[in-house]
Specification:
The protein has 183 residues and is an alpha+beta fold. The chain has a single domain, classed as Gcn5-related N-acetyltransferase (GNAT) (Aminopeptidase), CATH 3.40.630. It is built from 4 helices and 9 strands, in the order ββααβββαβαβββ. The strands form 2 sheets. A 6-stranded antiparallel sheet has the order 5-4-3-2-1-9, sandwiched between helices. A 3-stranded antiparallel sheet has the order 6-8-7, with helices on one face. A hairpin with an 8-residue loop joins strand 4 and strand 5. Helix 1 crosses helix 2. The chain is globular, with a radius of gyration of 15 Å.
Length: 183
């Protein structure tokens, strides 16, 4: 099985590898990048190691999970994007995070659009959700550009609110992709 899932115009999207740990730490250990994620605290090296294992198990169980975003021009991991089931929820949810140096360059939109298309084409997913902090307008723009529709503002178990976005397979995709089957 190829580790590459698909490619977009500027990105190769592949399964996580153990040597991605420094990249995970760079993204998920950045307090600014994590301010809208969970409790807003960056995660530790040990937690990054834990998520490498969780992601490997997700791929074994479902065939999908979080993936590395490798910029084709530099061959460098610039972030992560994937399809997951946080807290064992039944709905598929798209998640993404990029290294701060790559914010505002269109990579998030490219990765999310590609991941939505890949999930629909390879796994027959007809609905994928995303959740964001209500004040995370940059993520809202990314999700809307990718054809997601703004849903309800829902209350979480801890009393905080989360903005829901919903994508259905009939929604337009911004970028076309090629997958490992076309290699």
């Amino acid at each position: 099985m190829s580790e590459r899932l698909f490619s977009t115009k500027r990105l190769d999207v592949r399964r996580w590898r153990d040597d991605d740990l420094p990249h995970l730490e760079s993204v998920y250990g950045d307090s600014d990048a994590m301010r809208y994620v969970g409790d807003g605290a960056p995660i530790t090296r040990e937690e990054c190691v834990h998520w490498l294992g969780v992601t490997a198990r997700n791929f074994e169980k479902r065939g999908y999970g979080m993936a590395a975003l490798v910029e084709q021009a530099s061959k460098t991991v610039i972030g992560f994007c994937g399809l997951v089931h946080p807290g064992q929820q039944t709905e598929v949810e798209i998640k993404y995070a990029l290294k701060r140096a790559h914010w505002g360059c269109g990579f998030a939109t490219e990765a999310v659009a590609g991941m939505l298309e890949w999930g629909a084409r390879v796994f027959g997913m007809s609905k994928i959700i995303a959740t964001t902090a209500p004040e995370n307008f940059a993520s809202h723009r990314v999700l809307l550009k990718c054809g997601m529709k703004k849903g309800i503002l829902r209350e979480d178990k801890d009393g905080e609110q989360t903005q829901l976005f919903i994508w259905r397979s009939a929604a337009p995709i911004a970028e076309s992709i090629t997958d490992q089957k076309n290699d």
